[in-house]
């Protein structure tokens, strides 16, 4: 069962994580500690709180070895980021002043839709939907 991010990390860290598609505790398995530290708004305190929450839940961050930056393109105003294979889409949405804005989608490595939701200048808002591996709605949350 997915758990929300701990509020103790603060709003800047929550916004920074949401901007890269991390809105639930179990999403943190897709990012290393080094990548967390590179996010503007995620400081040492937030990282410590996240690691404690992961430990309590039996989860962990991605191992740092072999981390490649995500390839991205700008197509018709949409920022499209790709998984490490450089082919499969990881996320798609628009950016305004360096912040995610409007409707965004995240995809699994096999190309199926994983999560979708809305931002207003980096703030998570409205309905967020998580999909199972077959593309069926698994969970809907209101932000």
Describe this structure in words.
The protein is an alpha+beta fold and 143 residues long. The protein has 2 domains: 1-65, DNA polymerase, domain 1 (Orthogonal Bundle); 68-143. 20% of the residues lie in helices and 34% in strands. The protein has 3 helices and 7 strands, in the order αααβββββββ. The protein has helices spanning 11-19, 33-38, 44-57, and strands spanning 72-75, 78-82, 89-96, 99-107, 113-120, 123-131, 137-142. The protein has a 7-stranded antiparallel β-sheet, covered by helices on one side.
Features:
143 residues; seven-stranded antiparallel β-sheet; DNA polymerase, domain 1; alpha+beta; 34% strand; single chain
Mean pLDDT: 86
**What share of residues are in beta strands?**
25-35%
User: How far apart are the termini?
Assistant: 18 Å
Overall outline:
globular
| Order of strands across the main sheet | 1-2-3-4-5-6-7
Residues in helices, as a percent range: 10-25%
Number of strand elements: 7
- How large is the radius of gyration? 14 Å
Domain module count: 2
SSE order, as H and E?
Answer: HHHEEEEEEE
Main beta sheet, described? Answer: 7 strands, antiparallel
Spans where pLDDT lies below 50 across 5 or more residues:
none
| Helix segment tally | 3
Class based on secondary structure composition and strand pairing: alpha+beta
